[in-house]
Each structure stands twice: as structure tokens, then as C-alpha cells.
Design brief:
binds ligand MGD, six-stranded mixed barrel, binds molybdenum atom, alpha/beta, binds iron/sulfur cluster, N-terminal domain of TfIIb, Rossmann fold, single chain
Length: 900
């Protein structure tokens, strides 16, 4: 374990120091794996972060993002005080009292005039359960509208709907231990090597130690696919054809569990008949899924003969116009074989955010009420009595995409956004941003002072406590509730989100919001889950409803259900049947025939897939502040197959404009065989805050699954064309800059400041003037017209404030990663800087593969070229891959490539 990182963001040291004994046990705020973290701060303000060896989700491991958490704790860019929009786009400070009064009065005024459905909350799976509970209670219980939705709509809604259809409840049957015990793991639409790295390492250990097989089903060759025994490069949106074919195959080869089907399920015959219509044979399944028949046969055979199978799925399944059907097509195969809720065998939805599950539990989605109860009259009545809430909402509210459409129409007039950046992350993001600008009242609670949502016309900004400062619980993918505990004092006037919601509720005159602490909120939430439950609802935290404050503080990671009187939760559900349906039986669901929401056209002949990179998190408000994490993928890019690139005239490392019916982006082109012909891939992380023209959400159509309301974010019809700039390079700055429109740029955090990777047609004179205006009058320059080179710096005494290096070719990946190269320059060093002799570089031009030890691709490739044949040996020679292991799939891929 490593990681000694200063609060200012500079890496102070990297060593094998374990966190000291006084470390706080908390939970990583990124992905749904929910790793335990030991965190502490020493007397000099240095934060230490290490994996918690006693946490059952990670047993001490952290991935690159978790390991770099300490680098993201600086206060630069934090929202520290309540702010109100003043003249133009400016903001002025106001007291908490005034801010809370303004929110309460604003919401009350609009509700009084236009009714409760004229207001809405948009929440986030990055909130703690306690925050979420209070927000949901306020809106659904007391304001009386169910217009509470969350970014989980873009993430988990199809899994939720699939679970409810099959099991009668949104309950994940399996647990992580199943990934250790399975003999076959099927990952569908999941790039777990990058998105759930610690879980992926568990899978890889099972593969190495027990010989488990790994099948990966994805539309492109990912780092996850590189590690698979069998990789099926499926056509987008055809997963239910493949799993329908599998159901038919299982039935025909006699490996179904008739007893299980007979006693514990309904609907098998109808589902099988529909599966036969969709994919009557292996050959038909292969055609529909765009796969070679031999590969499909191999997969079906592996699935049929292996009793212990876990099929884990993520956004390639959920984010589809038929995401719910895809989920049920997968679950059908597990129900037919009785492989559910047993050691090593289950369908398994991998959750995205740290508390995607907690949000589902409290009822954060517009189509659920609270504690896994819906809007059936008896549930509404039960929750009404529990909350003592006569005005409780009695019907579903608007789901995310519909909610923002209602904002655009003016039907919703006040919106409170908490812990999400929808101006970047919603589909048709330009339209979403436009809608926000129409609101009478837009309140944003966030940790940062500026993001695309805040900059879309927010009226009030409320400073929320961030990770490390706040207290509460999160639930991970395996239903395990863990504590997030504070180890930093809250900066400025930041407050917990649950307390902000409670204060607004009280100011609106509502009873039942006198929570003293997160523990009080948790107890009420647990009590509601157990209220008139008597074993009828799986979501039951009755055993935790009476926790004392001390017991809450000491709460060990615990899986639900944990019923009244129980002291431990349950690892698995449904192994013995007892589903949450009225007859206790699971339901097979017949999926529709596969289609995609929007067809390709002559104008938009390619499919644009969007997703994640290993070292960035969503809209980069946190990971984007870490210099270490910036180096793996420093620029927004689009991946394209060589054939398509040639046809479109797009060059390797050139720029490309990607256009859809909804928007346009300019991205660095990466020409690679990993991408199939006809398909593009672009990461979602860059926003208008960190780049120009790279907000990929603007490209995605707002088409949703009709059942779950989840958008199809992975198959936008698109066109691509090359795009050129006269010069490109790097601009180093000590603080964020406002770059002129029309220019291409992407901002990275580097030690001591920011590196802007830029491309533009601007003349040298423009740049010299820019340096004078933004740096100082003391500008020195070097200009070589023939080579297209321009180097210039603006000095204050012996220190360069700004440094610019432009040329005709792309800048080195690691250009300017440390601004200390610009400090204390003698006259001769100034000249060297301009001549390029001491360009601020990190030694070599190659992306960093191992983020923990800063080992570049070139170094790793060199040792492989000199005969190194396995990842462990690379680790022994270079340390690469020996800490968090997130880069091991890439190292293995490089070895495989060299070996041919
Ligand atoms: N590094 C990092 N990790 C993260 C996050 C992050 O931002 N960065 N975010 C977290 C969150 S909130 C989430 S939801 C998860 C998401 O985790 P994942 O779902 O693993 O990540 P994605 O990259 O969105 O998409 C997964 C894969 O689906 C594939 N795919 C696209 N269309 C199809 C299809 O039709 N069928 C199939 N079978 N596959 C398809 C894509 O090519 C992609 O490789 O990651 C979590 N972890
Ligand atoms: N095209 C495309 N779009 C997608 C996806 C995709 O794959 N493709 N994936 C979708 C998915 S799965 C997801 S989960 C979303 C994620 O997208 P978003 O929901 O926009 O997620 P973030 O960018 O992480 O935004 C979180 C915001 O909350 C703030 N924040 C963090 N912690 C707290 C807190 O404790 N309190 C408060 N008040 N604020 C906090 C952060 O500073 C940040 O501004 O994107 C979705 N959009
Ligand atoms: S896998 Fe990485 S990002 Fe996910 S919870 Fe663990 S350390 Fe955090
Ligand atoms: Mo997500």
C-alpha cells in the first residue's frame, strides 16, 4: 500500500507506508465496488489513504482512482459559502439563513401558485443514504410531488426494472464471494477492468487460482476483453438475442432445472416461445448478434456445462433502449438453470456509483416511493402513516429525461440539483442546459464552485460537505452497507446535504425533520424499511433500526436484509425461492425483439458508443484535480477503426469532428483495431469546464427504454470528419484561464498549476498579446515560421507565469507535468526554455500506464521487447502494476501484442 499525498495536491512521497493505527475507516467515494479506505491526516496536513484490509469488499486493495484520493482533497475550486446570483453571471455571498430562506420561500411560492408538480429535485448516487432519505421524504412526503429523480436513472434504472419484473423487488441475489467461487464469469456490457477494478482483480485471481473462465461480451475490445478466455464482440443492442438463443440452447440441451422452474417460477413456456421467435438456433443467435457461430456455440456450451456461473452486467446492458429486456433475458437463463442466489452462481448487476444502491433503497427514483415500496395504495397509506404526511405523493413523478423536458416546456419551474452535473451528463446535454436556463429557480448543492450545471444559470449555490468531511452510509453492488466517516474538518461554511434538506423542510413548515445527526436519519430510514414488513419486503433494515449513536459510528460493513432481532445480514437471496412476488415465484419475462432507438442514416452512418476511461470519474470534478490521474488519458478522444478512419480521411492523432443530430464535438482521433468498423467510442468525462467542444453528452439522443426510462447512451447515429488546426501544443498556467472561443483545448491538473493542451489557428501575435494580458508584460518569444514553432513565456521576475509551446504535431503526452520547471530561471535558462532545450517535460513522450508509480507505456514496452514475458516480471523490473493493479490488463495486452 502506498500513498502519502499533501493536501495541496502534490505527491509528497510514494512508499510502502501503511496508514497509521489512528486512521479513520471509511469508504471510497467512487465506484459501486465500495472499497474500504483507511484515511488520516498528519500534523502537517498530509492526507494518507490506503485500502482497509478488514473491509470485505476489497481486503486492503484500492484501484488507481482510490489510491489517488488524497490528491483530490485540496480546496482549490471548492464551493465554501452559500452564493446567490447577482448581476449578470456574477455571484455574491449570503448567509446560510438567507440562503435557506430563499430556497424555502422560492419552492413554497411556486408550489402555492402552480401546484407541487411544478417543482422537482434531481439527486445523485453519490449522495449518502441519509442525504437521499431526507430529500425524498421532503419532496414525496411533504411537498407532495414524486418529481424526485436521480442520475441513477441514467445508470441503474434498467437493472432496477428488470429485478422488479423478475423478482418482485429490486434485490441483487448474489455477492462478491460468488465471483471468487464461480467457475464461469460472464461480463456483459461491462468494462470492469477500468470501471470496477478491484472487483475485476478478484475475478482475475479466481481465474488464476481456480481456473475460472471469463467470457466478455462487449461491442468493442476493452481492457476487460483483453483478459478474457472468450471475447464476443457483439453488435450494439443485440444482447437479448444472444441470451434468448442461450435460453433455447439450455432448454434443448436438457440442462434446465425443471424442478426449480416448476416450483419457484412462472412464465417459462411463454419466455421460451418468445426466445425461439428471436433466436431459434445458435446460427440465428449468431446472425442477430453479429457474431461468428463458433464463438456463440462455444459460449453456450461453456454456460450449459458450468453449474457455477455469475453473469455480471453493467452499462452496455442498462443504457439501452431495451435495457430492461436485456436484463430479463440474462436473468431468464439463470432462472431456467436454478443458478440464482447460490454460492458462485447468480445474475449480478454491477452498480456504478458508490451509493447507487442506497438511493434505490430510500426511493430516490421517481417511480418508487420509499424503502423499496412503490405507489400501490397500501404502500402510500403505510408511508403516509409512518411519516405522518397527509399530502404524500400518490403517483409516480417524472423520470430524468422527461423531467428535463418538463423543465424545457416550463412545466417545472423550480429545480434543486444535488450531487450531479446534468448539463454535462444527460443525453442531449445542450437541450438540458438550455432547459436549466429557463427555470425560475435553480438551486445547486455541490462541492465545487463551478461546473457546467452551475454555469447554466443557477440562482443559488449551497456548499455541501465532500468526501472525507461528511458522515453517513453507502450501499455497494452486493447490498453491503458501509460507513463513510469524516476525517477532515469541514472547510468554510460547508454542511451535510441531509442537514440542508432538513433545514429547508422546517422552513417550509413541515414536521418530522428535526434530525440531530446522520445516525438519527439512518434509524428512521431503517425503521421505515421494517414498518409493517413482517418478512414481506426484502429490503428490511429492522435489525439496525435501534442502533445507538455509538453503534452507528462503529457499524461494520453489513449486507441487507437484516431483519428485526437479527445481528447479521444475508449474503445471498432467492437461493430457496421466496421471491418478493405475490405468489413467491420468480417471473420469466419474454423480451421484445432487439432494435436500437435510432436508425443509421446516410448523414449519420456510424454508431457512437460512449463510456469511461480508467483514471477519470464522470465530469472530472474530483479526479480532474489529480496530476497523477491526468496522465493516463490526457485529452478527450474518439476511437475509430482504421478502415473508417481511412474512408473519412481521419488521421491517427489528428483531430476529428464528431456530429450527431443533437450536437457536435471535436476530439483527438485514436485509430485502433479495438474499435470495430462502423463504430466510434468517446469517453464522457470532459465538459465545458475542462475542455472546449468535448462535452460528449451533447451528442447523445434523448431516447429511453420505455420501461425503465433509462437513456440509450451507447448507440448514437453519428458522422465523423477530419478537422485541422494550424498549430497545437501546450500552455502551462498557474491558475485556470479563460481561453477564447473557437480554439480547441483540454485542461489537465499538473503539479503547481494547469496544463492546457491546445490547438488553434490563431496567429503568433494573438498569442503574444494573450500572454501579456494573462501573464505579464515581460514576454519573451521564439518563433520559427518554417517549422511552425512558437514558444513564448510571460515572466514575473525569475518565474514564468505562463509558458506556451506550439508546433505542427501533437504535444508529447507528458508535456509540462510539473510547473517547478518554470521557477527560478536564470537568463540562460530562460533562453533554453524558449529554445526547447529544457522543455518542461517528464522525460519521455508516452502515456503513463501505471498511475501509482508513473511508469510509461514506452518503458514497459522496452522491457517487454527485451524479453520480459509476464506482467509479474514487468512488475519486478519496473514496479508497474505492483500496487493497485489497475494497469495489469494493459500490461498483459502489451505483452500479447509483442508476442503477436
Ligand atoms: N474509471 C471509472 N470507473 C467508473 C466510473 C467512471 O466514471 N470512471 N463510473 C462508475 C459508474 S457511475 C458506472 S455506471 C460504471 C459503468 O461501468 P461500465 O458499464 O463497465 O462502463 P461503460 O464504459 O459505461 O460501459 C461498459 C461497456 O459497455 C459496452 N457496450 C456498449 N454497448 C453495448 C451493447 O449493446 N452490448 C454490450 N454487451 N456492451 C455494450 C461498451 O463498449 C463499454 O465497454 O462505472 C463506474 N466506475
Ligand atoms: N453519454 C453518456 N452519458 C452518461 C453516461 C454514459 O455512459 N454515456 N453515464 C451516465 C451515468 S451511469 C452516470 S452515473 C452519470 C454521472 O454523471 P453526473 O451525475 O453528472 O456525475 P458527476 O460528474 O460525478 O457529478 C457529480 C457532481 O456532484 C458533486 N458532488 C460530489 N459529491 C457530492 C456530495 O456529497 N454532495 C453534493 N451536494 N455534491 C457532490 C460533484 O462535485 C459533481 O459536480 O452520467 C451519465 N451520463
Ligand atoms: S474499485 Fe477503485 S474506485 Fe471503485 S471503490 Fe474500489 S478503490 Fe474506489
Ligand atoms: Mo453510473
Amino acid at each position: 500500500m502506498l500513498d502519502v499525498i499533501s493536501k495541496s495536491g502534490a505527491v509528497a512521497a510514494v512508499g510502502a507506508a501503511a496508514a497509521p493505527a489512528t486512521a479513520t475507516r471509511t469508504t471510497c467515494p467512487y465506484c459501486g465496488v465500495g472499497c474500504g479506505v483507511l484515511a488520516s491526516v498528519d500534523k502537517t496536513g498530509v492526507a494518507r489513504v490506503a485500502g482497509d484490509p478488514s473491509h470485505p469488499s476489497n481486503f486492503g486493495r484500492l484501484c488507481s482512482k482510490g489510491s489517488a484520493l488524497g490528491e483530490t482533497l485540496g480546496l482549490e475550486g471548492r464551493l465554501l459559502h452559500p452564493l446567490r446570483r447577482s448581476q449578470g453571471d456574477g455571484f455574491e455571498r449570503l448567509s446560510w439563513d438567507a440562503a435557506l430562506d430563499a430556497v424555502a420561500a422560492g419552492f413554497k411560492r411556486i408550489v402555492d401558485r402552480h401546484g407541487p408538480d411544478a417543482v422537482a429535485f434531481y439527486l445523485s448516487g453519490q449522495l449518502l443514504t441519509e442525504d437521499y432519505y431526507v430529500a425524498n421524504k421532503l419532496m414525496k412526503g411533504f411537498i407532495g410531488s414524486a418529481n424526485v429523480d436521480t442520475n441513477s436513472r441514467l445508470c441503474m434504472a434498467s437493472a432496477v426494472a428488470g429485478h422488479k419484473r423478475a423478482f418482485g423487488a429490486d434485490a441483487v441475489p448474489g455477492c462478491y464471494e460468488d465471483l471468487d467461487a464461480a467457475d464461469l464469469i460472464v461480463l456483459v456490457g461491462s468494462n470492469a477492468a477500468w470501471c470496477h477494478p478491484v472487483l475485476f482483480q478478484r475475478i482475475m485471481r479466481n481465474r488464476e487460482a481456480r481456473g475460472a473462465q471469463l467470457v466478455v461480451i462487449d461491442t468493442r475490445r476493452t481492457a476487460t476483453a483483453e483478459s478474457a478466455d472468450l471475447f464476443l464482440r457483439i453488435m450494439p443492442g443485440s444482447d437479448q438475442a444472444l441470451f434468448s438463443g442461450l435460453l433455447v440452447h439450455l432448454a434443448e440441451s436438457g440442462v434446465i432445472d425443471s424442478d426449480h422452474i416448476e416450483r419457484r417460477t412462472t412464465g417459462f413456456e411463454a419466455a421460451l416461445a418468445q426466445a425461439r421467435r428471436i433466436a431459434p438456433s445458435i446460427a440465428a443467435a449468431a446472425v442477430s448478434a453479429g457474431l461468428p457461430e463458433t464463438e456463440v456455440a462455444a459460449f453456450f456450451d461453456m454456460f450449459a456445462r458450468t453449474a457455477r456461473v455469475v453473469t455480471a452486467f453493467s452499462q452496455g446492458v442498462n443504457q439501452s433502449a431495451q435495457g430492461t429486456d436485456k436484463v430479463n433475458a440474462i436473468i431468464n437463463c439463470h432462472l431456467a438453470t436454478g443458478r440464482i442466489g447460490k454460492l458462485g452462481s447468480s445474475p449480478f448487476s454491477l452498480t456504478g456509483q458508490p451509493n447507487a444502491m442506497g438511493g434505490r433503497e430510500v426511493g430516490g427514483l421517481a417511480n418508487s416511493l420509499a424503502a423499496h415500496m412503490g405507489f400501490e395504495p397500501e404502500s402510500v397509506d403505510r408511508v403516509r402513516r409512518f411519516w405522518n404526511a397527509p399530502r404524500i405523493a400518490e403517483r409516480e413523478g417524472l423520470k430524468a429525461v422527461a423531467m428535463f423536458e418538463a423543465v424545457a416546456r416550463g412545466d417545472i419551474k423550480a429545480l434543486w440539483i444535488v450531487g450531479s452535473n446534468p448539463a454535462a451528463s444527460l443525453p442531449d446535454a445542450d437541450a438540458a442546459r438550455g432547459a436549466l436556463q429557463k427555470l425560475e429557480l435553480l438551486v445547486v448543492s455541490d462541492n465545487v464552485r463551478s461546473n457546467d450545471t452551475i454555469n447554466s444559470g443557477a440562482h443559488l449555490l449551497l456548499p455541501a460537505q465532500a468526501w472525507g468531511e461528511k458522515n453517513g452510509t453507502v450501499t455497494n453492488s452486493e447490498r453491503r452497507i458501509s460507513r463513510q466517516r469524516a476525517f477532515l474538518s469541514p472547510p468554510g461554511e460547508t454542511r451535510p446535504d441531509w442537514a440542508i434538506f432538513s433545514d429547508v423542510a422546517r422552513r417550509m413548515g413541515f414536521p418530522g425533520f428535526d434530525f440531530r445527526s446522520a445516525a438519527c436519519v439512518f434509524r428512521e430510514h431503517a425503521a421505515l424499511s421494517a414498518f409493517e414488513n413482517a418478512g414481506k419486503r426484502d429490503f428490511d433494515l429492522g435489525g439496525l433500526a435501534e442502533l445507538s449513536d455509538d453503534a452507528y459510528d462503529a457499524l461494520e460493513p453489513t449486507q441487507w436484509p437484516i431483519r428485526p432481532g437479527e445481528s447479521a445480514g444475508r449474503s445471498r437471496l432467492f437461493g430457496e425461492g421466496a421471491f418478493n412476488t405475490p405468489d413467491g415465484r420468480a417471473r420469466f419475462v419474454a423480451p421484445e425483439k432487439p432494435t436500437l432507438a435510432s436508425a443509421l442514416t446516410a448523414d449519420y452512418p456510424l454508431r457512437l458508443n460512449t463510456g469511461r476511461v480508467r483514471d477519470q470519474w464522470h465530469s472530472m470534478t474530483r479526479t480532474g484535480t489529480s496530476p497523477r490521474l491526468a496522465r493516463h488519458a490526457p485529452e478527450p478522444f474518439v476511437e475509430i477503426n482504421p478502415k473508417d478512419a481511412k474512408a473519412a480521411g481521419v488521421e491517427q492523432n489528428g483531430f476529428a469532428r464528431v456530429v450527431t443530430a443533437h450536437g457536435s464535438c471535436v476530439l483527438r482521433a485514436i485509430v485502433t483495431e479495438r474499435q470495430p468498423t462502423g463504430h466510434l467510442f468517446a469517453p464522457i468525462h470532459w465538459t465545458d469546464e475542462t475542455s472546449a467542444q468535448a462535452r460528449v453528452g451533447a451528442l447523445v439522443p434523448p431516447c429511453v427504454d420505455p420501461i425503465s426510462g433509462q437513456p440509450e447512451s451507447k448507440a448514437a447515429p453519428a458522422a465523423i470528419a477530419p478537422c485541422a488546426f494550424a498549430r497545437q501544443g501546450v500552455l502551462l498556467a498557474r491558475r485556470p484561464l479563460a481561453l477564447p472561443r473557437g480554439m480547441w483545448w483540454a485542461r489537465l491538473a499538473v503539479a503547481g498549476g494547469f496544463a492546457y493542451r491546445i490547438a488553434s489557428d490563431a496567429q503568433a501575435s494573438f498569442w503574444l498579446d494573450f500572454l501579456r494580458r494573462n501573464g505579464s508584460e515581460d514576454v519573451v518569444e521564439f518563433f520559427d515560421e518554417a517549422q511552425g514553432l512558437l514558444r513564448a513565456a510571460a515572466f514575473r521576475a525569475d518565474r514564468a507565469e505562463l509558458f506556451l509551446a506550439l508546433g505542427r504535431s501533437p504535444p508529447p503526452v507528458d508535456a509540462g507535468l510539473d510547473l517547478s520547471a518554470l521557477d527560478k530561471l536564470s537568463a540562460s535558462q530562460r533562453l533554453e526554455l524558449l529554445s526547447g532545450a529544457t522543455a518542461p517535460r517528464d522525460g519521455e513522450s508516452s502515456p503513463v500506464v501505471c498511475a501509482c508509480f508513473g511508469v510509461s507505456e514506452r518503458k514497459i514496452d522496452a522491457v517487454i521487447a527485451s524479453g520480459c514475458t509476464d506482467a509479474a516480471e514487468v512488475g519486478r523490473l519496473l514496479r508497474a502494476g505492483t500496487n493497485c493493479g489497475s494497469c495489469l490488463p494493459e500490461i498483459r495486452r502489451m505483452i500479447a501484442k509483442r508476442r503477436g
